[in-house]
Design brief:
Helix content is 34%, strand content 20%. The longest helix has 25 residues.
């Protein structure tokens, strides 16, 4: 219920409008002698701001809490409402001898919080950094901003961001971020650097672009390559919520809902996902493309509808993705090509980055804001990049990176998708062998299973289709299972190969064939 702490990493104070402290508020008087009247008076007190700054998130009233790791969004419970009224209001019942102070009756609190038509300012989330609005204005005032719907609780205080930066200021800002802070990371390709820099602008643009963002996946070939340092940069700049990767789809859903309901951080990192893990939960595909997240509240019979305005990041070694996540993921890959523990930090431009960040985080945030204002002053140019389901993000981030002359944004996305998509690699191998051995003839799923068994049992030693056919566990699938898998992938391309079907209505059976690449690789 308290405001986020004003203490932080650094530096200058911005111009702020002070919020009245709890003890400075005029105490509201609430008569609960008659319960219906009590419900009306408590509701009026909440909606007028007489009790505390109360907001609407989804369908439920909330306020801002202040925790050890930063501000968080707290749903108002019956007990919390009772305590708030005890501290900030005079609640009484009329007795024979006159009014008597009481605690808010539980039934009154329950009825108040059961309403679904609150007239409260809508809270989109907490931002720890200044936000750029659609008109190009940078909002530096702390607290709730009715124009954006965001509550600004700075982790680092920033002032004097130049409205129209000079070329020298822009060059210095880019050198600090790209050259000094990020220049010595072992990026696998230019796209990996560009895609991490793009991620750093997302928390600053959340008021401008309400669309969901892709999943950012930070992965490396070796432990100690710098994945945690990249997460550390995000944490020091913006604050991050660290979450565990769920053990199954249902557990992952619970984690997501809990984070969205409570976290005040703009970035959530699934840290240290097990090495070699394949990210494939359907709930993640649902999350990454949803502006509003709907789920049942744990322990209650009600649904939560919460804005999904976070950047979601997964972090681990040699990660791959499966199912629909491949086209919804942006990769940041590190490959040191040497044992990471043999590198000398003193040879890096920033030296020991952990120590450097403690001293220069405020400068880095100021540099990012300077670059953003430089882009605004250049007319906010957009690129022509496109990713289905993600609205303006690809074009906007592409425009910023192009304006910075930083190459690589989404340039090798197709190759990254194929390299990291475990399902696509498996099916590409299967379809390639199918096409090579069986041509473009049509087959039923049962015929394909029979071919695989013949290959596996040595009846057809020339065939290797059994070694590449997708398996059910470690077994060749039966015809019904293979038929389901083929239907689910009908028409999709896998490294240029495509599954096509013909339905025989009389026999009520599907016939399958593989269409090969239009331009097969030269031998």
């Amino acid at each position: 219920m308290s405001h986020p702490s004003d203490e932080g990493h650094a530096t200058e104070n911005v111009a702020t409008v002070p919020q009245p402290r709890a003890e400075e508020r005029e105490r509201v008087v609430i008569d609960v002698t008659d319960e219906p009247t009590g419900v009306t008076e408590v509701t009026r007190a909440l909606q007028s701001g007489a009790i505390a700054e109360v907001y609407l998130r989804g369908r439920r009233p909330v306020w801002i809490g202040d925790g050890d790791d930063g501000p968080f969004i707290e749903e108002i419970t019956k007990d919390a409402l009772t305590l708030a009224l005890h501290e900030h209001a005079d609640v009484f019942k009329m007795r024979k001898n006159g009014p008597a102070a009481v605690l808010l009756p539980t039934r009154v609190a329950a009825v108040v919080l059961a309403r679904n038509n609150w007239k409260l300012p809508r809270l989109k989330g907490i931002t720890t950094v200044p936000l750029l609005s659609p008109d190009g204005q940078l909002h530096l005032r702390e607290g709730y901003n009715p124009a954006t719907g965001w509550f600004y609780a700075p982790q680092i205080r920033i002032k004097d961001v130049p409205e129209i930066p000079t070329q020298e200021q822009i060059s210095d800002a880019q050198e600090l971020v790209v050259g000094r802070m990020l220049g010595d990371f072992p990026w696998m390709a230019p796209s990996d650097l560009a895609q991490f820099v793009g991620a750093l602008f997302i928390p600053l643009l959340r008021s401008m672009i309400p669309d969901p963002t892709p999943l950012w996946c930070i992965t490396a070939t070796n432990p100690g390559s710098g994945k945690s340092l990249l997460s550390r940069i995000m944490g020091d700049l913006f604050g991050i919520k660290t979450a565990s990767w769920g053990s199954d789809n249902g557990e992952q859903r619970k984690v997501i809902t809990s984070v969205l309901m409570e976290s005040g951080h703009p970035v959530t990192v699934f840290d240290n996902v097990p090495s070699g893990h394949t990210l494939r939960y359907p709930v993640m595909s649902e999350l990454i493309t949803s502006q509003i997240w709907g789920d049942r509240v744990l322990g209650k019979s009600e649904m939560a509808n919460i804005p999904n305005n976070m950047l979601w990041v997964a972090n681990g070694n040699n990660l791959t993705v499966g199912d629909d996540l491949a086209r919804r993921t942006i990769w940041v890959r590190l490959n040191p090509e040497v044992r990471p523990d043999t590198r000398d930090p003193s040879a890096f431009a920033a030296g020991d980055l952990n120590e450097w960040l403690q001293l220069h985080t405020a400068e880095v945030l100021h540099a990012l804001l300077t670059l953003l204002r430089g882009w605004v002053s250049a007319g906010m140019p957009k690129s022509d990049h496109h990713m289905a389901s993600f609205g303006a993000w690809p074009r906007t981030l592409g425009g910023i990176l192009n304006w910075m002359c930083l190459p690589g944004w989404l340039t090798d996305r197709e190759a990254q998708m194929e390299d990291a998509d475990e399902d696509s690699m498996e099916w590409a191998a299967f379809l390639s062998v199918w096409h090579d051995e069986l041509g473009t003839n049509e087959y039923t799923s049962q015929s394909l299973v029979d071919f695989a068994f013949a290959s596996a049992t040595g009846m057809n030693t020339a065939s290797k289709i059994n070694s590449v056919m997708p398996t059910n566990g470690d077994k060749i699938p039966n015809s019904k299972q293979l038929g389901k898998w083929l239907r689910a992938r009908q028409g999709r391309f896998f490294s240029g190969y495509r599954i096509l079907a013909r339905r025989d209505a009389r026999q009520k059976i599907n016939y399958w064939r593989v269409e090969g690449p239009k331009n097969p690789p030269q031998q």
